[in-house]
Amino acid sequence: MKTLQTHVLGFPRIGARRELKTALEAFWRGATSEAELEAAGAALRARHWALQAGAGLDMVTVGDFAFYDQVASHIQLFGCEPARFGFDGAATPLTRYFAMARGERSDCCASDHAAPHGSHALDMTKWFDTNYHYLVPEFGADTAFTLAGERLLAEVAEAQALGHRVKASLIGPLTFLWLGSARDSGFDRLSLLEKLLPVYTALLMRLKAQGVEWVQVDEPILGLDLPQEWRNAFEIAYWLLAQSGARIMLATYFSPLEENLGLACRLPVAGLHVDGVRAAHELTSVCDWLAQPKVLSVGIVDGRNIWRTDLDTAIGLLAPLLDKRGELWLAPSCSLLHVPLSLADETALDPEVRSWMAFAAEKLDELATLKAALAGADAPRLAEARAAIASRARSARVHSDAVAARVQALPDGADRRGAPFAARQALQRARFRLPAYPTTTIGSFPQTAAIRAARAAFRRGALPLADYQSAMRAEIAHAVARQEAIGLDVLVHGEAERNDMVEYFGEQLDGFAFTQHGWVQSYGSRCVKPPVLYGDVARARPMTVDWTVHAQGLSARPVKGMLTGPVTILQWSFVRDDQPRALTALQIALAMRDEVADLQAAGIGIIQIDEPALREGLPLRRARWDAYLAWATRAFRITAGAAHDATQIHTHMCYAEFNDILPQIAALDADVITIETSRSDMALLDGFGEFRYPNEIGPGVYDIHSPKVPDTDAIECLLRKAAQVIPAANLWVNPDCGLKTRGWAETEAALANMVAAAKRMRA
Ligand code: GLN
Ligand code: ZN
């Protein structure tokens, strides 16, 4: 007798129409009550459980819902809200929750995640290698844990009352501690494990008493390079949790287990979930090592991408596992939080491209079809799935001979500039004759309500193209005039015509498709709608030349052309799974290289290629960093490689830990790099100094995330710090990042002070 069960590790919670965003923002505005917000949450949960049950899943997952972030929910569940918030007894749990997430406001500030007064929000950082951001727990020696939150238990009861068979889900104790930060340096988060485990045990017992058969406990850190103490701690921790009597499905994902495979298989739990997409090669070993009667859950449907599963291949992989074990659970590789909710309303997508895709709801159907097919039952959707896979494999929309030929014929030196940096620098200095400490900005100027309204009207068809274009040209002229008045040395056109730095290019390149509702939660109520890169990438015509030339025509000072780099376009899109990411990056690089060439030919002497996502593409395992960095930096260099020696290539990266990849950043060989440093008080620059970073650098001198206008003294002080670390002749002066989220008044005031500080440095 063979047993197959289907489940998910988590489901998107934002809602098909981003209902959660609407509900949250109304509540934050004060327009709705807590009870109304709770009702909106309950309605979403009920709908998402109904989708899981309706698709035929054997259980629904409870505990994946959160009003802001699942890690923040665990902070409250385990009663370890940082004392610095100083909550008095009167604050409701939700008030405290949003204070942690968004900061405590003593004034009314519309911008999210900033608290001008009161306690600042918890830090946010990326959830493993996804674009989801979680709130970082703060741990110290005095951190205590109690089973404080009743929310999870209440949600379990809610699902049970709706008649569902429930699997509860939790972040595991080791992953929870790993994700936190130590408040005091030298404090070891792992030392808290002893205090944390009894609370987990108590919770597991409560869940069991409530009739929950299975508890999914997520330990994705088993896919990371773990220090030995952390690996050891797993054995003790799970031995203790086993005493609760709960049946634990230990969930791992995002990464192969490698040296932790034996450990994961050995732990005293009732089941193990592994990522069958990113670690398909480990399935046989896991199957051998995982002793019966432990249950193996295979994450066979890609939870990180939007393509249909090749069900025949999946069946070929799963059938022998099922034969060997007799019981198998089928699931997506990881939580479906990282994909959009449903294709049902995507009416504008090209039908052929759409037929190749599966969002969360469609992935549920895939699980049901796989289960039926493996059980030898009727699987009516299998034929349709096969046809879609076949159509995608041979479609002329996907494969372009011209692109393949160009990649084939790429000459060896295509990723190198003509002359070494020193020679280029001399040529560029003679050409641009910029003062010492040249001033510039990162690209965007305020995206005002008027700009957004014009774009919305244009997209609706209410504003003719010619009118839209002249409105944008006027905005560009305004930005150029303001920059001249402020006295900046290298100007930008301001990016008024761009909705988003990736979408703008994707919309003009072959190989990209765009959804209407394909939203994915980034943090809190914020979502992104990544483009879908489905085919070979090519550029039909110039994408930025007209706007840039228009701007250059308005000023005698150099105007910097502004492009998004190949790695960032790749990283912020859903990309093909039918060829290596490296090849997709190379195709994008070639398309962007043509844009560099065209800008240059049109007389644009300075071109910036933004790569804010370069670092976030780093694989989770160190051993794979070099391979990634080699192709990623090459993609950048191929784009930049079209530039003549006298053309100055800039790049820009946002706040990131650069120190461990400085050789590769230097290998980009950009003539100028601008980075975000003001929030670290220039400390981020130390690494560049020690490394003797050879090319020019613009360390950001003020934080653009805050509306506060920095004063000239403060900027000058930062510049003096920078000049101690970097040769003054190589220093540029610029803000941390683009200015699109700011208003004009504060932008002009801030830039005027920045220019004044640069002048003092020259004097
Ligand atoms: N050029 C872009 C801008 O100024 C860069 C944005 C970014 O780094 N994320 O908006
Ligand atoms: Zn930036």
TrEMBL record:
Gene3D superfamilies, sorted = 3.20.20.210
- Listed binding positions for Zn(2+) are H652, C654, E676, C737
Q: Which residue positions are annotated as catalytic?
A: H705 (proton donor)
Query: Which Pfam families does this UniProt record tie to the protein?
Result: Meth_synt_1, Meth_synt_2
Please name the GO terms of the biological process aspect recorded for this protein, alphabetically. Answer: methylation
Q: Per its UniProt record, what InterPro entries does this chain match? A: Cbl-indep_Met_Synth_N, Cobalamin-indep_Met_synthase, Met_Synth_C/arc, UROD/MetE-like_sf
Tell me the residue numbers annotated for binding 5-methyltetrahydropteroyltri-L-glutamate: R18, E19, L20, K21, K126, R526, C527, W572, E616
**According to the record, how does the cofactor bind?**
Binds 1 zinc ion per subunit.
Tell me where in this chain the Cobalamin-independent methionine synthase MetE N-terminal domain is found: 6-323
Q: Is the keyword Methyltransferase in the record?
A: yes
Q: Where does L-homocysteine bind?
A: I442, G443, S444, E495, D610
Entry cofactors:
Zn(2+)
Entry keywords, A to Z: Amino-acid biosynthesis, Metal-binding, Methionine biosynthesis, Methyltransferase, Repeat, Transferase, Zinc
Q: What catalytic reaction does the record list?
A: 5-methyltetrahydropteroyltri-L-glutamate + L-homocysteine = tetrahydropteroyltri-L-glutamate + L-methionine
Per the entry, what this protein does is: Catalyzes the transfer of a methyl group from 5-methyltetrahydrofolate to homocysteine resulting in methionine formation.
Q: What is this protein called?
A: 5-methyltetrahydropteroyltriglutamate--homocysteine methyltransferase
Gene name of this polypeptide: metE
